[in-house]
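Entry 14: structure prediction run for non-specific serine/threonine protein kinase. Input pasted below.
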Amino acid sequence: MNTNSTDPTIGRLIDGRYQVRSRIARGGMATVYLATDLRLERRVAIKIMHPHLADDVEFREKFIQEARSAARLAHPNVVNVYDQGQDSETAYLVMEYLPGITLRDLLSEHRTLTSEQTLDILEAVLSGLAAAHKSGIVHRDLKPENVLLADDGRIKLSDFGLARAASANTATGAALLGTIAYLSPELVTRGVADTRSDIYAVGIMMYEMLAGEQPFKGEQPMQIAYQHANDSVPTPSTKNPRVPAELDELVLWATARDPEERPRDARAMLEQLLETQSQLQTALPANATAVQRTVVLPSAQNANSDAETQVLGGARALVPVGAALAVDDAPSALAASADKRRSRGWWLFGLVLLIAGLAGGTGWYFGAGPGSTVTIPSSVVGMTPEAATAVITELGLTVEAEIVEEHDPIVENGKVSSTDPAVDTAIGRDAVVTIRVSIGPKPVIMPDFIGLTEEAATVVLTDAGLIVQTDERIEQFNADVPVGSIVGAYGINSDEKLIGLKNETEYFDQRPVTLIVSAGALPSVKGKSFDEAVAILDGVGLVGEAGKETFDDDVPKGAVISIAPKPEGAAIRKGDSVFVIVSRGPDLVEIPNVVGETIADAIEQLEGAGFTVDVRTLIPRDRWDDEFAVVANMEPGSDEKVKRGSTVIIRGDF
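Run finished. Output tokens:
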């Protein structure tokens, strides 16, 4: 869906300064656009609160809180905030624009990062987060989507939309804020967050970068939340054997379920990360990835010059290794724990040799023999049935001869949409797999929603299997439909208009629908001055522009006659520009002088000039073209101007 093509914000001038160019991203509270700051002639990112949230005091306060929190931070690893304000009903935040990708994009493409990449990214994240923690700010929404990787190599932390003062330590209320996959146990169970909650989220991100997946999974958010509250995060090396033991220990320290056993803030974890990085550069396990600097990042030591923020190997926080240790013992405890794990490997190796004979037979049975299992790869989704059959057969599985067809709102017609058992399921070798092939989205009959209230129409369309785009509603002026009721809708794009549908037009399951809501009748501006009319239109969300001046017999010169849409004949919606048509007054023209002309010639001249002629004479009509049948006088006289189309009386005589 080309969102830019139907987004009324594209092209808009915000607060007379920021020209919106294109959409970058959309979140739960706001949409981020690329814009040009016309005053300073630079590109910026402008975050605009969703219109349906603008009237919500709580959301507006959160939006303003983000601006205030981020503006207090001046750090090379934090996205700069330039401005914040409100234009009409639009609340906005202007930020530094960083062309590039997010950490989520990087993980989606590569899944697992190397140790060096993970440490480089974490150093930048922790440097920026340390500045926030020093200023008394808790981010509360750390996740890969909020880590920006610029094209020029800079790494910056963004989106302090859920930030709170670190000293507040307040509960979130009924709803848990933030992304569930990165919420700390105390946020899940008590709704309370401090700097150590941010550290937990950093630890989860570190696990995800090293292991290639999140530590906890579930079909429902509450299942994931339960695991965060009750289970310990495993070491990333269980999924990726190349992860060094030192990084395992760092993940365990950051994700300890008890906040008291985590680093006290980002600076404490950053100090340990730099020390761990130094240890890995001098001595790495044979099976670990090399740690070499590949990206030039802002140095943690240079971020702030005062002694308090310089990373010089000072005090450390507690480490979750055995019993709680003294603060100054954390680095040595981490190193000792890693050494202990490596030394323990020697006697484990001997034990493995001792029982190798017994384990060999068992390993064959479950690894390659009848008891082994294979996993149906998710990559078969989107393949042709033939290609998917080849992949599944190569794994030692049997594909059911009969292919099952099913509707799917996403997968292309004719491609594999699912399997039975489902993809990513481990099943025994020689098991039978059924392939399901998409026949496209399920057709639905559009319900009758025209004239319903917005809330009622949303329910009706959702029940029909469609997705109502609540953050992209369109307000259109319509004198015949009550305010708040539906006048029409759009489908995937503006060319697929659904106006006036009543149980007759076929659409498709899980497709988007954008509602067009009545904004009531247009305001009356007839007889107003141009400036008065523009002010009235601005009050209802329209931009008035000077249109072509027109003659009007009833409206005085300089007063407004009406407004007209741009382009002509189009519907008028909030945010549109419209033409303001101003009167030139009555259309007055000069009467031709026909005195002395024959009556026939006088009639021809006057009618040709747009006048109606009233002839008053005793001369017969068939003699009006005689040279002696001339006009003796006329009324009005030829020296007067009258409205075009007026009646002129002529009197004739021999």
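Notes: The chain has six domains: 1-97, 100-354, 373-438, 443-518, 530-582, 588-653. Will compare against the previous run tomorrow.
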